[in-house]
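Milestone 3.1: sequence recovery, worked example.
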């Protein structure tokens, strides 16, 4: 009996593996098609002249939820699902989500509304922390999304691509981490496979979150695509203090070392060290005050019942995911010049489409 059960389990495992259609690694054609899907979301970067996806059809567009968040579900001809996350809109509350950029632990819970407490895990590392504004998006979107994913799984669809541009790119990374840990904890089928493309996304969390995320996606399952002329991936504001280092670090030895010096040297070097150490710590507290607690206390107008969670004492944001770098050349700058009045010039879908053309991708007809 045990032998028969063993055989059946292995057959099931083999069938799951054979059923997988996604391949690891950055695929420029795959990303190109996903950009077309992302461009249909109708956010602040929408342009009706951009090309329409060729291989996918939209199955579902969610209602607007949370802080003006929305997602779409698309399906390809070969039955690969696409989860598309909308980026920043022209709605003021969508910008509030971006600037609500204090950090919270990557594992915990937050009361998002009167009837919804979001319990989440996005990392194993206890020191991992993420952007609170974009975490709220994951909470609302995930609640609407999971039944749709499960419905497709019951129809035999097990492969999903996740795409987001701009704000949507950062939410896409946090969403991918959330789905991964749902699978690890047995709350989502392990037969599902997710591959993530964050396009032009800002930094979603701290170094420990990046370590954690990149560890389980490092074999080609998550990419961060950046135009080096684009300012958006450089945000949010990042501050690194001595408290952001691993537990074993030389800064903990400073006080002991100073005590061993002669009095005059100790006073001088101690003053210098405090002048170097204290300003970033004070700046970190200011960011938490203004971009955390102050915004959080006012966000109840958009989210009745929202309760401000305890913040993580850091603002050390870093880029996350395997980096795919798109570098402009002279021809690019002729079409997308550096001008003080056009701050979105290098962030638009058009700029990313144009840079992808350097990878010999057929461009269709795009109005640039």
């Amino acid at each position: 009996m045990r032998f028969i059960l063993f055989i059946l389990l292995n057959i099931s495992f083999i069938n799951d593996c054979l059923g997988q259609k996604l391949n690891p690694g950055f695929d420029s054609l795959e990303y190109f098609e996903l950009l077309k899907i992302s461009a249909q979301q109708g956010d602040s970067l929408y342009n009706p002249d951009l090309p329409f996806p060729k291989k996918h059809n939209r199955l579902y567009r969610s209602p607007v939820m949370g802080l003006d968040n929305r997602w779409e579900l698309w399906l390809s001809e070969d039955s690969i699902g696409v989860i598309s996350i909308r980026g920043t809109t022209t709605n003021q509350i969508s910008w509030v989500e971006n600037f609500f950029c204090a950090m919270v632990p990557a594992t915990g819970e937050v009361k998002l509304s009167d009837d919804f407490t979001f319990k989440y895990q996005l990392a194993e590392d206890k020191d991992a922390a993420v952007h609170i504004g974009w975490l709220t998006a994951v909470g609302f979107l995930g609640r609407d999304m999971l039944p749709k994913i499960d419905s497709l799984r019951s129809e035999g669809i097990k492969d999903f691509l996740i795409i987001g541009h701009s704000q949507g790119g950062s939410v896409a990374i946090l969403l991918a981490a959330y789905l991964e840990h749902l699978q690890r904890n047995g709350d989502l089928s392990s037969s599902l496979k997710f591959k993530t493309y964050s396009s032009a996304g800002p930094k979603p969390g701290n170094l420990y979150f990046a370590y954690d995320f990149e560890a389980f996606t490092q074999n080609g399952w998550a990419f961060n695509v950046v135009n080096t002329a684009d300012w958006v991936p450089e945000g949010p504001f990042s501050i690194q203090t001595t408290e952001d280092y691993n537990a074993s670090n030389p800064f903990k030895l400073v006080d002991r070392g100073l005590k061993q010096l002669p009095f005059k040297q100790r006073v001088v070097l101690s003053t210098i060290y405090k002048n170097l150490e204290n300003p970033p710590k004070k700046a970190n507290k200011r960011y938490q005050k203004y971009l955390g607690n102050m915004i959080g206390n006012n966000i109840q107008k958009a989210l009745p019942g929202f309760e401000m969670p305890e913040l993580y004492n850091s603002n050390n944001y870093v880029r996350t995911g395997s980096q795919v770098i798109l570098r402009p050349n002279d021809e690019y700058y002729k079409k997308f010049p550096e001008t003080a009045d056009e701050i979105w010039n290098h962030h638009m879908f058009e700029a990313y489409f144009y840079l992808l053309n350097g990878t010999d991708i057929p461009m269709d007809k795009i109005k640039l």
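Residues 3-18 have pLDDT under 50 and may be disordered. DSSP finds ten helices and 13 strands in the chain.
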